[in-house]
Amino acid sequence: MLDGDSGITGDAFRVFWYCGIMTYKRGGASAKEAAEHLKLTPQATRRIAKELSENKLLLVADRVGRTIKYRASPHIVSSLTGAEQPEEAAAYHLPTLPGRRTGAKRRA
Questions:
Q1: How many C-beta atoms surround the C-beta of residue 71 within 10 A?
Q2: 27 near 74, Cβ under 8 Å?
Q3: Residues 62-77: pLDDT tens digits?
Q4: For the whole model, what pTM was predicted?
Q5: Which of 51, 60, 70, 101 suits 17 as a labelling partner, its CA being 20 to 30 A distant?
Q6: How far is CA 27 from CA 18, 23, 105, in A?
Q7: Nearest to 47 by CA among 15, 79, 25
């Protein structure tokens, strides 16, 4: 995720980790909550959270009306024991990074 060609910007990384931390404290966070804490605009945070959820780095934890609560993917962040992690992670597809191709071999 920290690699320059991963497609993850600094703000996207901050939104991911905020939602990841809130996954443990309150089961996730909305884009508005992340925007207020990270001093970003709500529109930018919604766009970032949507992009991260399309790449399965964030998952939709809850939806109330138009408000979406995001939580971190269990493949990346988990407070479960080693025996419980595979069970939760098996329910979700592996995350993909936006800037990297998947499935195709790279040519040298």
A1: 21
A2: no
A3: 888 888 888 887 766 6
A4: 0.64
A5: 101
A6: 12, 4, 37
A7: 15
